[in-house]
Amino acid sequence: MTIRDFSKLTIVTLLAVSSVLVGCTKSTGSVEAPETETPAADVIKIGVFEPLTGANAAGGADELAGIKLAHKLTPTVLGRKIELVIADNKSEQLEAANVAATLVQGKKVNVVLGSWGSSLSMSGGSIFAEYKTPAIAMSATNPSLTKGNDYYFRVCFVDSFQGAVGAAYVFNTLKAKKVAIIREVSSDYAVGLSRFFVNHFTKLAGDEKAIVAAVDYNSGDREFVKQLSVIKQLNPDAIFIAGNYTESALLIRQARALDINVPFVGGDSWDTAAFLKEGAEAVEGAVFSTFFANDAPINKTSDAFLKAFRKEYQKEPVAVAVLGFDAYNLALDAITRANSAEPQKIRDALAQTKGFEGAAGTITFNANGDAEKPAFFKTVKGGKFVYHSVVEP
């Protein structure tokens, strides 16, 4: 089956869906097992490696929703049943490494999807490579994830691109000359994204002093008055926050309480309903880069996905749910092209991916296993995410 034929099959299946998604697993600790046992030879196991509890649980749940929808629509490949082996890495790097080992060594999955969060994904990366099990990240954007790892791929853009387009937006659209940076120093994602933003913004401004402040916080922090007070005294034109959705929303709320009323700009981690809930009215007008916009679908697969997701979940998807859907279908496409469920053959087929039509855009992997995708900008308007603009790679 060609990539084009597979995409057409996916669209037809999507448009036919009409039932509410039924959970397919039950929990047995950090890794869920299938409800019914099927002989191993008849089963292809897809590991789902996500934070389902802890600080990043909302992001993991969003990606899982997209994966489950795709599995509901296409539960078999090569005439064999697909089982989702769902693992909770608990938003902790050590647990992520343990869970990754359990998936590939204990559960012997054929391919892995996940994880939300670059740090969590990177904790499992060396294990997937050691056991030669391919993994597909949905929204982990740190360039280091796939660099030097032939077994990790991703269906999203990387932070070198995201940081550059964010800086260009702040400089060209907001006309900012002075910017303050707030970063989650304990996050590989945030540290990398802020570095790429700073490097590009100072080049655009032609002035290294264009970054008037760079302050840090740690994951899980709830009070930011000290950092914000420093920034307020420097009177920046805009503030770029690189960090998780919860802390970012709290930062903006506390900044507004201190009468800091400049534009706030961030990255893809804000694209979750938890950001809106935590930030409430304070995040109105915030702008961030992300992977997909529901009000600007890219292709027929986008339209079909949106229709199916809304029917299944009775709500709007966030961007990472679309990526979860695409990663599952890409894994099936690789298995089909390989005509095998052997992990090494799946890996080799993934590396050859060209022109796969996903709901979030066409996927062609470069030498690092990264997809080169556009960046969408969204803003918060009326308590909802609204499409702002798009930047092509």
How would you portray this structure in words?
The chain is α/β, with parallel strands linked by helices. It has 12 helices and 17 strands. The chain has helices at residues 3-16, 57-73, 93-106, 118-130, 159-173, 188-205, 225-234, 245-257, 273-279, 300-313, 319-338, 343-351; strands at 25-28, 31-34, 43-50, 76-77, 80-88, 111-114, 135-137, 152-154, 179-184, 211-217, 238-242, 264-266, 287-290, 356-358, 361-363, 375-381, 384-391. A 7-stranded mixed β-sheet has the order 10-9-11-12-13-16-17, with helices on both faces. It has a 6-stranded mixed β-sheet with strand order 4-5-3-6-7-8, with helices on both faces. The protein has a two-stranded antiparallel ribbon with strand order 1-2. The longest helix has 20 residues, at 319-338. It is globular and about 65 Å long. The model is unreliable at 1-29 (pLDDT under 50).
Name the helicity range.
Answer: 40-55%
Task: Count helical runs.
Answer: 12
Report the sheet with the most strands, covering strand number, pairing sense and barrel closure: 7 strands, mixed
Shape field: globular
Strand content: 15-25%
- How far is the first residue's CA from the last residue's CA? 29 Å
Mean pLDDT: 91
The neighbouring-strand order within the major sheet is 10-9-11-12-13-16-17
H/E element sequence: HEEEHEEHEHEEHEHEHEHEHEHHHEEEE
